[in-house]
Structure formats: structure tokens, C-alpha cells
Design a protein that fits this description.
This protein is 46% helix and 13% strand. By secondary structure, it is an alpha+beta fold. Helix 7 packs across helix 9. The protein is globular, with a radius of gyration of 20 Å.
């Protein structure tokens, strides 16, 4: 574990500066060490931030420092992320927020203690776990807006405009998939959207599991006021392979099953795959982490997107909204 003044990299210097500002009284004894190493494939984890375990007394690492990456700065509202993280913590659904600076893209959190681990898909497909997760999401959705209206289609257009076409290897059918996204966006807009506050990124790597069935949400970079069926559709897409497995999750969320709502979920799932494939390509072109498999992750998300769009009957989802 390093102490202030021992930084050897630009990110360590940044971490020391942040910690000295947030915990000045502990500056003489502060220790820190890398918490998570970046992995894009198979799970997109710790690639858009640098994280450290922090020990105020130099021995017990009971804090967690997250430094947001500059490569996606224009895609993340760090002010809203702080608001959302604090609200979720107040609801008992996330680690406590010790401090943060939206302009500097930093957040200092209480570290979850012994017995906590990052969730895997197999952990979340059990009825008790998925029910717990849906209840947490609905609790957040019942609160006041976060102040950041967002849709995955707006996100797609933002990244589509940023991608440097000359250096990023877009697949040959990227324009075909993008044309589908515009049709899907038009169908969703025509049907209307009821936005609610949401964590916004329900992938298993953003869920922590603790003792006695405890669960917590982490990483609020995607938080905003979002159509709840986007978050639900993304969750279905990650946890289950078959639509017959997905439908009970909608009934759990709404208390009943509706073909219209299910169509919305499936449309959003395909759009989310395209969005994160594009975002991974953007990271591949910008990130200094050249050893991280951004292209492999993007390829997987593109594949699942084109499989959904090419499935017989997918267009029916648009017609049933």
C-alpha cells in the first residue's frame, strides 16, 4: 500500500491530490492501493474509471476511491452520478458517499466489508435475487427525478457523432444497425415515454452481493431519468437466453404481463447492445489501456444486436407499441 508522496503514475498523482483534498486530517497516515484491474471482456468492468482502496489510518482500507476516465467525460454527468449515489445510499441500496467532486470526476465511498462480492449472472437469476434487485430499482424509481432525462437512442446518436470513422473499425453492417436504431427511436417516441429516476446500468458487475442476501448497487455513471423498461429490458437481456425466461421478469416488475411492455423491453435491449458496442469502440480509439479487449467486447455486443434485429418477428415489436 502506498502513502501520499509515493505516486509513480499520473493516476496515482491524481488520486493523491483528491485524497489530500477530501481527507486532509488523515494526510500523514493515508494509504491507498489499486482496487480493481480493468477488464472489458467478458465483463465491462473498471475500464471507464480508476479505483483505489483507501486506508485513512494507513492499515485498514475501509474507503473506496473512484476516478472517472477523461475518455468518456462528455458522456457522463458526474453531478447527477453523485446525486444518484447519495440518494441510493440514503435508501440503503448503495455504499455511503463520503465525498466527491463532479468537475474532477471523483467519488469517495465507504468500502463494502468482508463477505461482499461482485455479482455474477448465475447469482442474479435466482427468484429471490432478481426479485430483490427489481424491488431496489422500483424504490429508486419512486423518488424525485435526478434531473438528467436520457434515452439510449440519444446516447447512440451522441457516440455515433463522436466516432472517428477513419480509425475505428466499424463493422460493415453498422449503418444497417444504425438505421434500425432510428426506426426504433421513432416507434418509442410515438408511443410515449414515462421517465423515472434509475441507476441505468443494471449489468451484474454493477451489483454487489453481501452476507445474508444483502445487495447493493455501484457505479452510477449512467444514472438519469429513464424509461423503466429500458433498464428492465437490459436486465432481461443479460440474465436470460430465451424470451420465455424473460417474460416472468416483466410480470414481477409490473404485476402483470403485457405484450406492449415486453416489446418495449426487447427494443431497448437491442438498442443497448448497439450503444455499448459503439461506446467500446470509442474507448478503443481513446483509452490508454491498449491491452484491454475493447474490440472483443464491442464485437460481442454487435453480434447480439444483429441477432436480435435479424430475428423473424422483431419488427412486430415496433408494431405492437
Amino acid at each position: 500500500m502506498k502513502h501520499l508522496g509515493q505516486a509513480q503514475t499520473a493516476e496515482e498523482l491524481r488520486a493523491e491530490s483528491v485524497l489530500a483534498g477530501l481527507l486532509p486530517a488523515d494526510a500523514e497516515t493515508l494509504g491507498y492501493e489499486v482496487a480493481m484491474h480493468p477488464v472489458a471482456s467478458p465483463s465491462y468492468q473498471a475500464v471507464e474509471s480508476t479505483t483505489y482502496y483507501v486506508a485513512p489510518n494507513g492499515t485498514e482500507a475501509n474507503l473506496f476511491l473512484r476516478l472517472g476516465a477523461a475518455e468518456v467525460a462528455e458522456l457522463v454527468d458526474h453531478g447527477v452520478a453523485l446525486v444518484a449515489a447519495r440518494r441510493a445510499a440514503d435508501l440503503g441500496l448503495a455504499p455511503a458517499v463520503i465525498g466527491g467532486d463532479a468537475a474532477a470526476r471523483t467519488m469517495l465511498l465507504a468500502r463494502l466489508g468482508a463477505g461482499w462480492k461482485v455479482a455474477k449472472i448465475d447469482d442474479l437469476i435466482t427468484p429471490d435475487a432478481v426479485s430483490h434487485l427489481v424491488t431496489m430499482q422500483k424504490t429508486i424509481a419512486a423518488g424525485a427525478p435526478f434531473g438528467r432525462p436520457w434515452s439510449v437512442f440519444e446516447g447512440i446518436e451522441a457516440i455515433w457523432a463522436l466516432l472517428p470513422r477513419s480509425s475505428v473499425p466499424l463493422p460493415d453492417d453498422a449503418d444497417w444497425m444504425h438505421a434500425w436504431m432510428m426506426k426504433m427511436a421513432e416507434a418509442i417516441d410515438a408511443a410515449g415515454v414515462d421517465r423515472r429516476p434509475a441507476h441505468g446500468d443494471p449489468h451484474s458487475s454493477n451489483v454487489m452481493l453481501g452476507p445474508n442476501g444483502a445487495m447493493a448497487l455501484v457505479d452510477f455513471d449512467m444514472a438519469g431519468d429513464i424509461d423503466p423498461y429500458y433498464q428492465l429490458g437490459v436486465q432481461m437481456n443479460e440474465l436470460y437466453q430465451f424470451e420465455s425466461q424473460m417474460k416472468p421478469l416483466l410480470e414481477l416488475h409490473d404485476g402483470r404481463f403485457s405484450e406492449t411492455a415486453f416489446s418495449r423491453c426487447r427494443i431497448y435491449a437491442a438498442a443497448d447492445d448497439f450503444y455499448w458496442a459503439l461506446r467500446s469502440l470509442l474507448m478503443a480509439s481513446r483509452s490508454p489501456l491498449q491491452g484491454v479487449e475493447f474490440l472483443k467486447y464491442a464485437g460481442w455486443r454487435f453480434l447480439r444486436c444483429r441477432m436480435a434485429l435479424g430475428k423473424p418477428g422483431f419488427e412486430e415489436f415496433l408494431r405492437t407499441l
